[in-house]
User: Fold Strictosidine synthase conserved region domain-containing protein from Acacia crassicarpa.
Amino acid sequence: MPKPANLNSSSPTRSSQKTAKTTTSTFSWHLSFITLILPITLASILFRLDPFQPAHFPADVMSRSITAAPASNDKMRGGSEAMAEGHVDGPEDVVYDAATGFIYTGCSDGWIKRIMLKESAAGDSGVQNFVRSEGRPLGVALHRNGELIVADADKGLVKVTRDGKIELLTDEVEGLKFKLTDGVDIAEDGIIYFTDASYKYSFKDFMFDVLEGKPYGRLISYDPATSLTSLLVSNLYFANGVAVSPDQQFVIFCESILRRCRKYYIKGPKKGSIEKFVENMPGYPDNIHYDGEGLYWIGLSTSPTYGWELALRYPIIRKALAMIVKYVGKPDMEKNGGAVSVDLEGNLKAHYYDAHFSLISSAIKIGNHLYCGSLHYPFIIRLDLNKYPAVPTAAAA
Assistant:
């Protein structure tokens, strides 16, 4: 009788199974390794070959601490109303015409809209499509004759007549075209002061200007009487909001990335010189407006978060972020958007913000209310300053 097979002894079949398992395991390990390493290798190659080369920001500015306002309201969203909700898209700047009761704003779809000011922000608040610029209207200023002057990011500096006709005033200075016309204000003598945030990057690519860290911004003037466009200040870091001082002696201009606003003198013995106005702000300034009551109101897009501050200090991080923006999309790094009030001497007085707000771009005070524009919300933020005031901070107390 034949002996039964020894179940403990190796057989060709079991040996083949073990070999197959080993081969499969090895293949899976190699596949996982390749899946992990290949994207890293490709990303490393792209990183090295990409021509985008960020620069260091001024060391003296980056080393400064944040100056807090003596009073604040850090729950701004809770008391806010959504004005013209669903009828405005990205109302970047706002200006008020007291003669007609309209607020004007430029939206992301190219429309300049006007909203009738009412006691309540509910409903459409009488929103009207005023005129379409076919560009991206940003800063807006109201001339005494009722005409609008608009800093259109795509087109340049434009005038909008009271009956809605658009006229291009200027789109270049000293032979260099504007790429991102941004903030604007008008002096009593009619001269228009405005900024070109970047002569290299357009509005849709503004993040690359921020991340590159080079001063492509300019402060410019335009004289309607002579049609003369003049370059006043160059080498600015994302030049943004503009406001003529109430005494007409100087123009305040904001440099968003450096968290500061400075003064450029347009009259008197200091004409042509630059002085600091407010520095080390608790956020990145955008548009600036004077309220006629001794205060400037400045929109703050976001607070200096740890991630942003780290990126601004190290060019290599900004290059990595640029690659993400280019190939994936802009990461969400903004919070605590809001506005600050600043007195005539450049002292911070109050800070309104909320962790859930971002990319707040402007603020104007009308009566007891603060109206804020933004780059992406489908409404204008309205806050009753009497009901929801800024209260003294612990440091101030």
Remarks:
- The domain at 68-392 is CATH 2.120.10.30 (Neuraminidase).
- The CA atoms of residues 54 and 316 lie 7 Å apart.
- The longest strand covers residues 228-236.
